[in-house]
Write a structure and sequence with these properties.
Blueprint: E1 20-26, E2 28-29, E3 41-42, H1 49-66, E4 71-79, H2 87-100, E5 102-113, H3 117-120, H4 123-128, E6 133-139, H5 143-148, H6 155-168, E7 171-178, H7 185-198, E8 202-207, H8 215-221, H9 230-246, E9 251-253, E10 256-258, H10 265-271, E11 275-279, E12 284-289, E13 292-298, H11 302-312, E14 316-321, H12 324-335, H13 344-351, H14 357-365, E15 369-371, E16 377-379, H15 381-385, H16 387-394
Parallel strand pairs: 1-4, 1-11, 2-3, 4-5, 5-6, 6-7, 7-8
Antiparallel strand pairs: 8-10, 9-10, 12-13, 13-14, 15-16
Helix pairs in contact: 1-2, 1-11, 7-9, 12-13
Length: 396
């Protein structure tokens, strides 16, 4: 580990009662989707899950030595495809979390899953081992878009998985991807209405993005994959916000919609810039250590991560002590994604500087940000459309 972990103690940025999350990355997939740039890997032989579980346990123990005595408010199994894990694997990792930290009795424990029938049969096993929230990678409720997106399930598989998950888990979310090639507002509204009819209390709705290094990027570069122009994409985004709000699932973050009280507590840890430990290949973390935010990154390759975790107790590739200014900028980037916005006083305490009043005046005058009644600074609907520019302006 790098020396920032061993600096003399200073005032902690993590206060008693603050949420603390644990992100567990399972990097393996049955197939790589053509739009995906996540740290995911296809292995043509079965993964020895028992061998990997030992490495996860060691890394959890190490992270708990860095930030001891924390109460875990949420655990999120992300990927990759966590629903390729056996329920016993999930249970063993949760036991390690509870052994080295305190796992809150009401902790939100989410697992991402694909809607294929084989994985759906594991749902009951996950629930028995403590998972209380499922996040399904549905992406579309129509077969042709699913084929285009490289998904292995059908629309009927998705509907069956949603129905099964609603019967088994107290909470359910699922993802959809829109702004696909040729998708009209009318077609998206029909599909979105169908999704809302099936949804429980949370939906994640993402515009298709073309990420460098993916097959879709190459197709787009060669002119073989048209995507909606910015104006059409903006229309689809506004339509999404309008339809979900009408049905009681307003946007609480740019791409996430929930009924009141049903927001994803784990993701709020990220967006509100609280602490979380990143466990597993490629996982990122943010930890308050010795008066500063520590940014951690684990080795991305699963086998290299495993070797390091077994040899030295963790698979960390980087451990960087952020400056106050860097931490403040991260808080802006994350917090302004939320409909609730940020607390200017917390930004000042974290970054050591106040927000520039000239920038606030200009952006307010342009109708891009506003102050809420509780004093929070938040983006307006117009500001969300150009959020990267708003954040860059405020960070100056």
């Amino acid at each position: 580990m790098a020396s920032p972990l061993h600096q003399p103690p200073q005032q902690s940025l993590h206060q008693p009662g603050d949420p603390f999350g644990v992100y567990v990355h399972w990097p393996f997939c049955a197939a790589k989707c053509p739009y995906c740039d996540f740290n995911s890997h296809v292995r043509h032989r079965p993964v020895d899950q028992a061998v990997f579980v030992e490495a996860y346990g060691r890394e959890i123990a190490h992270m708990a030595s860095v930030v001891p005595n924390r109460t875990v408010s949420s655990v999120f199994f992300g990927g990759g495809t966590p629903s390729l894990m056996e329920p016993d694997t999930v249970g063993a990792i949760l036991e390690a979390v509870a052994t080295h930290w305190t796992l809150s009795p009401d902790a939100e424990i989410t697992l991402e899953a694909n809607p294929s029938s084989v994985e759906a049969r594991r749902f009951q096993g996950y629930r028995q081992r403590g998972v209380n929230r499922l996040s399904l990678g549905v992406q579309s409720l129509e077969d042709e878009p699913l084929k285009f997106l490289g998904r292995l399930h059908s629309a009927d598989d998705a509907r069956r998985a949603i129905a099964l998950a609603r019967d088994i888990f107290p909470r359910l979310s699922f993802d959809m991807i829109y702004a696909r090639p040729g998708q009209t507002p009318e077609a998206w509204e029909r599909e979105l209405e169908a999704a809302i009819a099936l949804a429980a209390d949370h939906l994640s709705l993402y515009q298709l993005t073309i990420e460098q290094g993916t097959p879709f990027f190459e197709l787009h570069r060669k002119g073989r994959l048209p995507i909606p122009d910015p104006d059409r994409a903006a229309d689809l985004y506004e339509l999404t916000r309008e339809v979900t709000a009408r049905h009681g699932l307003p946007a609480y973050e740019i791409s996430n919609h929930a009924a009141p009280g049903a927001q994803c507590r784990h993701n709020l840890v990220y967006w509100r810039y609280h602490d979380y430990a990143g466990i597993g290949p490629g996982a990122h973390g943010r930890l308050s250590v010795n008066g500063a935010k520590l940014a951690t990154v684990c080795e991305a390759n699963p086998e290299i991560w495993w070797q390091k975790a077994m040899a030295q107790g963790h698979g960390l590739r980087e451990s960087e002590r952020l400056t106050a200014s860097e931490a403040g900028d991260e808080m802006l980037v994350m917090g302004l994604r939320l409909a609730e916005g940020i607390e200017p006083g917390r930004f000042r305490a974290l970054s050591g500087r106040g927000l520039n009043p000239d920038r606030i005046r200009d952006l307010t005058g342009d109708g891009l940000i506003e102050f809420a009644e509780d004093g929070r600074l938040r983006a307006t609907p117009a500001g969300f459309m150009v959020l990267d520019a708003v954040v860059a302006d405020l960070a100056r």
